[in-house]
Amino acid sequence: MDNFEQIRRHLASSGYKLSVQEPFVVCVELSLAQGKRHQAIFLAEMQDDDGRDYLRISTALAPITGLDARRALRFNWESRVGYLAISELDGVPYLHLCENRPYDTLTAAEIDRLVLEIGGTGDEMEHRMSAGGDLL
User: Fold this and answer.
1) Confidence class of residue 9 from pLDDT cuts 50, 70 and 90?
2) Taking all residues of the chain, what is their mean pLDDT, rounded to a whole number?
3) N or C: which end of the chain has fewer CB within 10 A?
4) Alpha-carbon distance 59 to 61, whole Å?
5) What is the rounded CA–CA span in Å between residue 129 and residue 38?
6) What are the beta bridge partners of residue 96?
7) Which stretches of 24-73 are assigned E, i.e. beta strand?
8) CB neighbours of 126 closer than 8 A, spacing ≥ 6?
9) How far apart are CA 60 and CA 130, in angstroms?
C-alpha cells in the first residue's frame, strides 16, 4: 500500500462497514459474537520525523478512571500484538489498543489481519474490563 486512499479503497471494496471517512481517518465497525458485540477500529495515517508514512490501527477499550494500571502494563509486557495507550474521546481519557505499521510493509491481507486482530483483541479486553458489557 502506497497511500491512505488505497487503504480506504481496500476496506470499502472488502465489505467492511465504514462509519467515519475523513481525509486520513476511517472507522471500521466490526460486528462480533454473531452481532451481539461491536467494536470500532480506527485507521489513521501518521508520519515519523523523517516523513515516512505509517498506518495506526486502534480501538478504544475503556475510560481510564477506575482501571488498574498494573493490569494494563502487564498486558503491554505480555502482548505480541499491539500496545496500550491513552487518548481522549470527547474529553474523556480512554485506554486504547494500538498498532503502527509502515505503509511500505502493508498488503491488503495484512490490513485485514490487523483490523480483525486489533478488533477481536480489543473487544475481548473491553469485555473483561466492563464486566461483560460493551462500552462503545
Assistant:
1) very high
2) 88
3) C
4) 6
5) 15
6) 60, 85
7) 25-32, 37-47, 53-63
8) 39, 60, 61, 62, 134, 135, 136
9) 12
pLDDT, position 117: 93
Flag whether pLDDT at 135 surpasses 70: no
Cell of residue 131, nine digits? 464486566
Distance CA 89, CA 20 (A): 14
3-state SS, residue 18:
strand
Nearest to 89 by CA among 70, 68, 115, 63: 63
- What letter would DSSP give residue 52? -
pLDDT band (50, 70, 90) for residue 131: low
Q: Which three cell numbers stand for residue 117?
A: 486482530
72 pLDDT higher than 80: no
Q: How far is CA 25 from CA 6, 7, 72, 91, in A?
A: 12, 10, 26, 19
Tracing cell 495507550 back to the chain, one arrives at 85
